[in-house]
Task: structure prediction
Amino acid sequence: MGTIYLIRHGETPWNQQARYQGQMDIELSEQGLRQAGFLGKRLQNFPLAAIYSSDLNRAHQTAVTIAQYHGLDVPKDPRLRETHFGVWEGLTRDEIKQVYPDLFRQRYSAAGQAAIPGAESPHAVQDRMLAALGGLARTHAGETIAVVSHGGAMRLVFCSILGIPLDEAYRFRMYNTSLSELAAATDSEGVHWSIRSINDTSHLQRQEVIGH
Result:
């Protein structure tokens, strides 16, 4: 049985502004760097065999902060990226509500059906995330690793493991640098997942917990 710690990246300025980032390459804020530092210290004695991240800066910066305690490099995997949100990328939630009010409501009531213009489908994101995580689980069978990704993409992984419709993905709250623990059992039929914990932010102070 292997363990994957699935981590959301630290806070960015756009998180503070409630602005959709998607696949736009935004770096961590000062608070995001502090959050990553707290998480790195928390994980410093965990027996991590490897650390991987999305190829977007906010995830890779978070992963590198963790990796410095373990003497590990951080390979980047674009399959671990956030959802591409099409025309919504760069807009705040308030701006989207004004221009796309019905679609915004659908995004938070039936996420799997919200067809945002130019956006990647939730099913496609779920498929690439599970392919990436499944490959890592097989490569590191019986080991403990960390993977830094993004809140929206991670929600879709949880939906798959728990058998929850993608329409309900918005119900998972994912805070910056939150830690979720997955167990992965591998055999000739594939990878069998279970969840040990979701969205653990006990390494942060209350005022540092950001969820946009």
